[in-house]
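= Paired protein data =
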Amino acid sequence: VQLQASGGGLVQVGDSMRLSCAASGRTFRNGAMAWFRQAPGKEREFVAAFRWNEYYADSVKGRFTISKDNAKNTVYLQMNSLKPEDTAVYYCAAGNGIIMSTMRDGTAYDYWGRGTLVTVSS
């Protein structure tokens, strides 16, 4: 199973950016696909997940939108109104055994992509 994330780069404060994560080797039609991020010097944190419903960290709620295209086995993260504190390496993750109580727990996910760097410049 491979998760290939793309779409990162350098943007200005207030800009928008969309990340994509395409899964190959296994489908996650009934599983969860999610985004986590890790800022320099900080621990990895949950950003958003999709499993029939959408789940968001409080820090991104109202600015980020996660969506999933089952036909393409791809999850997207639309990020609007970006802030400097959104600067991080963003990782996509996927798993078929995710339940609601573990949606925000990175250890519950079986597969991880390599990550893509998002830098928000002020």
Summary: The radius of gyration is 13 Å. The first strand starts at residue 2 and ends at 6. The CA atoms of residues 7 and 68 lie 16 Å apart. The chain is about 0% helix and 50% strand.
